[in-house]
Amino acid sequence: MLLFLFVGLLVFMGLVYPHTSHAMEGVRLPEDVKTLDQFKQAMPAPKAVYYNEYSADTFVVVGAMKGSTNPSGPPAYVFDGRGTLRYWSADTGDDPDNPATRAYHRGGGRLILLDEAIRMGRNGAVQR
């Protein structure tokens, strides 16, 4: 009986773990991505991009990726007003202390296109 349970657990992990690992690879940010331009080239199209102003800083938050299957929470990528990456979190459901998670859950902001965010950063339109 114990052997049957052990084999069942191994089969379950073999089916679930690769799926979870693959999903995380779809949201993991490559180390060389430092700007919105680079993000656009390296990552799948985002589900949403928000322009948020709060505290003394301005951020563009890029929300969940299309097709990602992260059951705990979507990924969030936070860029400053010049389009430079500041923070990111692969899982906003399991990373409560990450500034990207807090920015994502704070919500609000104006929904914009990724190209608009890139243009705003290049033109300095978002800078204070």
Describe the structure.
The chain is an alpha+beta fold and 128 residues long. The protein has one domain (2-123). Helix content is 38%, strand content 20%. It has helices at 2-25, 36-42, 99-106, 114-123; strands at residues 49-54, 57-62, 76-80, 85-89, 110-112. It has a five-stranded antiparallel β-sheet. The radius of gyration is 18 Å and the shape is globular. It starts with a helix and ends in a 5-residue tail after the last helix.
Helix-strand blueprint:
Elements: H1 2-25, H2 36-42, E1 49-54, E2 57-62, E3 76-80, E4 85-89, H3 99-106, E5 110-112, H4 114-123
Antiparallel strand pairs: 1-2, 1-5, 2-3, 3-4
- Helix/strand class: alpha+beta
Radius of gyration: 18 Å
- Major sheet characteristics: 5 strands, antiparallel
Query: How many DSSP helices?
Result: 4
Low-confidence stretches: 11-23
Number of strands: 5
In whole angstroms, how far apart are the ends? 67 Å
Give a summary of the structure in a few sentences.
By secondary structure, the protein is α+β, with helices and mostly antiparallel strands. Helix content is 38%, strand content 20%. The chain has one domain.
